[in-house]
């Protein structure tokens, strides 16, 4: 749940993707078009990559993929 909220906040508010449902990234993806899906996918993958690097830097993971 927390990850969904964080991803929604990042993609719809900070990156300002024009989602149809401002309260939910999942709803915006379900009711959005292919262009929105592609942009949201790119943003989510970038966010998760950053989160992984942050966790590794903080020593929260073992660094294996």
- Report the uncertain regions: none
Determine the fraction of residues in helical runs and give it as a percent range: 55-70%
Mean pLDDT: 87
How many distinct folded domains? 1
Portion of residues in beta strands equals under 5%
In total, the number of strands is: 0
Distance from first to last alpha carbon: 23 Å
CA-atom Rg in angstroms: 13 Å
Description:
By secondary structure, the protein is an all-alpha fold. It has one domain. The chain contains 3 helices and no strands. The two termini are 23 Å apart. 11% of the residues are buried.
Topology at a glance:
Blueprint: H1 2-14, H2 25-31, H3 34-57
Briefly summarize what is shown.
The chain is mainly alpha-helical and 65 residues long. Helices cover 68% and strands 0% of the residues.
Question: Which tags fit this structure?
Answer:
single chain; 65 residues; mainly alpha
